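hi support,

uploading two proteins for the ticket. first:
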Amino acid sequence: MNCKATNLSYQQTGYFSRIITDYLQNDASLRSFYAHPVSLEGVKSAIYARDQFKTNRKILVEELTKQYHNLELSVAVRDNIEKLSLENTYTITTAHQPAIFTGTLFFVYKILHTIKIAKYLSAELPEKNFVPVYYMGSEDADLDELGYIYLDNEKISWEAKQNGAVGRMKTKGLEKIIDRIEGEFSVQPYGKELAALLRDCYLKSPDIQTATFKLIDKLFAEYGLIVLIPDNPNLKNLMKPVFEDDLINQTASSIVEKTIRSFPENYKVQANPREINLFYLKDNIRELIEFKNEKFIVRHTEIQFTKDEILAELKNSPERFSPNVILRGLFQSTILPDIAFIGGGGETAYWLELKDLFGHYSVPFPILILRNSFLIIEKRWEEKITNAGLMVTDIFKPAETLLSEIVKNESKNQVSLQKEITVAEDYYSNLKMIAGNIDITLQQHVEAMRVKALKQLKELEKKLLRNEKRKFEDIHRQIHQIKSSLFPLNNLQERIENFMPYYAKWGKAFIDLVYQNSLTLEQEFTVIEEK
């Protein structure tokens, strides 16, 4: 494919929160909430901190080997699993829940960013090994968030009627959605290949986490990506001291609440801790654990434990305890030799709440890297943008703003009254001075005249612009077509669309296209235009 990539700052897009744009600009108010800058020097600092912590590599490699037992291992994945037993191997990790069919485009983007950084660091620091890892949040129970995709702006939901962790849910019912996908994309060059891939991964798997495991491996194994499913008794066994401390002492909540209280007031808190930050996970149950009336209660069930009983349950069945968002990162960085975490805006924001929690348990805090973001502009839309006389940076603006700018630039008639408004400002300022020299109280009267006159001029300017816009109906229509296509549901493309339309058109070349244009530590938004 012949494509052109353009990079711009996240702030230019207008789609990212204040806390994220400030973080990317190294704002002083946030520096105490992270450990390492996003730079090669920051990587070296994170490696040094990691070397002071003992990772149980033996159990990690054993459990990964078991998880991959039924898959045909690629050479790259096999090599990377073996490298994890070495003390000079570190992981670059991203995490995501097992949304059906990957959910939205940014799932793919964050994985490819993780892979690209691992390769970049391996070249920059050849004496070390860097392994990309996708940590599957398969214990998430929010099916409303994970059980749908959008195709052509239509929301298609999986009517699962199952409870508990989504990763453990059976794949029954997904065949209907796959039939729909095949019908929609079979005319595309790789449409049938896509449908066959989904049937193999989902309809031949016992549950969603297995299906996701297979799909992600099929898409990214050649890059050496390791998929880790942490819903595992031997991995959770490594977290028993922290889980016990959370149950008995509620340490995490007090530490994170203190951090949140020290946050600058202009930032929204992304994740609030609970007294106990663990769910009880068994069969089709994943419910919060609460301490009430001297008992540990599993919400929405009749399950309850005394203190001795719940500690015995933790000792004998650690897999039944599932960390929430406050403890998940700590679990991840305990079982993996992490030096960097790749996350979206929301993830990066809540990780900024966790540094002191990591410090309390002496777990090294990784570099926080905002995942890469992309806007894919197919050739037909690239041509429309060019014909409309727009630049790549223009299309992030609201449609009405864009039209107003075009009208002002291209209209043969004057529609801006800025010069006249400036003249009026000067006129009333001078009049105010004249009146004040005679009677200071007259200045208030002149000010009222000024406000009324400027209001009328601005209203006239709006009417001039509105009437002139009617002469630009064709360009108006084009702008709305471009915006509705590239920013579906008034959101970023990557937050709504799925990878499948692009895979059906380009096959694995789409994955490689994004990989080749993925940045490493630059932290910029990328627009890819098909030429």
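and the second one:
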Amino acid sequence: MELQTLTFLTVGLSFALYIAIAIGSRATSTGDFYVAGKHVHPVANGMATAADWMSAASFISMAGLISFLGYEGGMYLMGWTGGYVLLAMLLAPYLRKFGKFTVPEFIGDRYYSQLARVVAVICLIFISFTYVAGQMRGVGIVFSRFLEVPVETGLFVGMGVVFIYAVLGGMKGITYTQVAQYCVLIFAYTVPAVFIAINATGNPLPQLALGSELVDGSASLLGKLDQTLVDLGFGSYTEPFNDKSMIDVCAITLALMVGTAGLPHVIVRFFTVPRVRDARISAGWALLFITILYTTAPAVGALARMNLVETVNGTEGSGTHYAAMPDWFKTWENSGLLAWYDHNQDGKVQYAAGKAFAGNGKPVFDGDQRGSQGERATSNPGDGEIQGGAPHANEIYVDRDIMVLANPEIAGLPNWIIALVAAGGIAAALSTAAGLLLVISSSISHDLLKGTFMKNISEKNELMAGRMAAAAAIGVAGYLGLHPPAFVAQVVAFAFGLAAASLFPVILMGIFNKRMNKWGAISGMLAGLSFTLGYIIYFKGVFIEPMAANVPENWILGISPEGAGVIGMVINFAVATAVARNTAPPPAHIQQLVEHIRIPRQA
């Protein structure tokens, strides 16, 4: 069976499964819609949490960034994994003890202020829509390549599927759909990794294959990759701080870590279990399920980079003639996520350090500027310089987000594995997108309407409002998916930075600082969010040239936009503390509430 047919079949069956689960888990009350009735089993909740957590950034983009960043790519692994541990141990049990539906509801009650609740909703919407833009980009990438349809069409199909199980089933439908999606995505991620690890090293465990010798006995995988990249003019794969400074790596890692603990769509998962004890148990299960993918990602990244170099440059390292390039190369060109420009007009595809298309600081080829199939551009829109210190100029641009998806094709694996990877990538993107969209809709219907502006609204009308809000949020998410600001993992990193700067400090202080009052919390959230959002917008080329946006000397303390959440978090803590010390302390019953939720003995 040809690849496209097999992919349509595999993805179609997975969609049918998700929709069937949603229909069977239809929400009939606001409790079902917001927190799945608070009766999800800890193991099922752990699996759903893992699927909610491992988004398109984890499945599609993380290993791709590791494959290009090498040592520094570990900041995504450390930040996201460490952040989940921080969330599970420091916040989740206490928030479950509080027993509400949403994060803004906790903030509004803890800080005895409807204004604080509204500000929290604003922060949550900025975070969630930034995050969901990355997921929708992931959906578009998978559809545009494997189903060979326009990105717009792929996004509309993905939006339709999410609409059905998010709007119809709410948290109840999403929870059990995410259990199925976890099974699909983890199988799709590990199976090709095992096959590629065996082919390269003979070791079936990717985690061990990373440090194993190659089957030809020439060197270890990392040793061979190090030497190959250095010969091509790149920095050593295992050498630290080639592309990013130590302070930037530390800032991004910390921003990802504390941002994790402030992500509302992950926090709300701990509201769905019956007891506080179950929240801790489900957190442990989720960490186990997450570990399977996260320990596999470094091997996937290294193997993908090695396979790419050997395929493009050939065994002799002098480049492969374009006519002899395998089908996957030309197919990914048609998706607009890979491009070739023949600098020296020798007809060979050569990969080395430096920009493939010189003169403008970024690739110039995308879906609109690419020629027709089989046709290459005949003029360079840049300045024509050959860049990089390698013996051959770099002639290809590779989007980081294709590395995991293209890896099975590059390695020559069977079509059924390639189709499985497509289904897994879509499952990862849709699972997180659904969780984010539900958080947005519940914030609008429960926190703004029911909690603030229409307190007497009936449960039936509140449920309808939640579904309408979810539908509207899906439309906005689709638009953002068509116009993402960066690679999937980078977009997601921005969302984590916003969460680190806005929600994490007030949640943490709400649990552990009895003296923190409403004015401190409101001021801190606004200050942290405003700074971080402004920093990201300013340095992503909105107000300055893209080249200047990538120069560390222009950043505060050398910290990039991906790590700006750390600065925003410090500002949040500082402003909140200063304001709280100069205003009235919280009422006595609020201080007693803080004491109560800090003792997680019972639900």
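thanks. also noticed: The longest helix spans residues 151-201.
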